[in-house]
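User: quick one, fold this
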Amino acid sequence: MDLGLKGRIAVLVGASKGIGKGIARSLAAEGVQLFLLSRNREELAATCIEISEEFGVDATPITADVSSAESVRDAALAVKAVAGTIHILVTSVGTAIRRQDRTITWGDSDWRADIDVKLTGIMRVIREFEGLISADGTGRIINITGASGLMTWMPALNYGMNNAAVIHATGYLAADLADRGITVNTVVPGIIGTEWREVWAGGMASGLLQEKDAWLGDFCGGKGILARRWGKVEEIGDAVTFLASDRAAYINGAKLVVDGGLTANVR
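Assistant:
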């Protein structure tokens, strides 16, 4: 589908793999020029080469660490020096669940470490890049959060608080930036089959002498996912790409849940 995005410019944070890479590929398929940010220089460079060769768009790697205000500021200056104005800012930022024990027992440093990457990291990104976003009605900020921000997901207390806080910030920023014609929305994924999850599922199924798809259907069904499978990174990418387009111009401050029915039927 041609969403009219060809030639627009996007900055995507957390783009070297997983959901972020899936989003980058979906935007590139629509002809969007990309600046991709991540901490991992080698993975990021490989992703940019892959996308440029497959889709014929510019994909520029910029190494950045969202836990560092200086690093994010330098990344914004690098984009400004090349592009001046951008149209789309996507934040796909986060960490794996740090520990499996009761989060309430953690020390302050472990609490802060998670919050500094997800919540504060996204706020740093928006602070440094929002001045570059076009105010002609094409400006979009799209935050990637997670279903744990809408439900209780044991044992992910920090994980859920981070996502809930970013969902709240999304609504606030939608109101804050409305006068500039910039929309701010969040895509809320459920359980998504990222690279590491696919490997994990294969190992779990093999250990039980089951076919991976059969094991995965039982696993997802047991979690309450109505689709009885987990999502594909491309499905999150397609949702983001739609929100980035002019067809979504009247969607602002929204939570677009893409979870196969998890939060409607959680167990």
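User: anything notable?
Assistant: The mean pLDDT is 94.
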